[in-house]
Amino acid sequence: MAFSFTIDKGSNDGIAKDMNVMAGSGLVGIVTDVGPTWAKVRSIVDDSSNVSGMVLS
C-alpha cells in the first residue's frame, strides 16, 4: 500500500527530489516529485521506503 501526500512547498522554495522531509525531530518521508509550488512526499511508513544510517562514535 502506498502512503504519500503533497506539501505546499516546491522548487521555488528550494525543495528537490530525494530530499528528506522532517517534522519536529523525526523523519516523515522523502520527496518523490516536485513542481514549482508543490512536492509529493512518500511517507516513511510506505513499504517501498528505506532509510540508510550511520552511527557516529
From TrEMBL:
GO cellular component terms given for this protein: plasma membrane
GO biological process: regulation of cell shape
The Rod shape-determining protein MreC beta-barrel core domain, residue ranges: 4-55
Matches recorded under InterPro entries: Cell/Rod_1, MreC, MreC_beta-barrel_core
PANTHER family cross-referenced by the UniProt entry: CELL SHAPE-DETERMINING PROTEIN MREC (PTHR34138)
Listed name of the protein: Rod shape-determining protein MreC
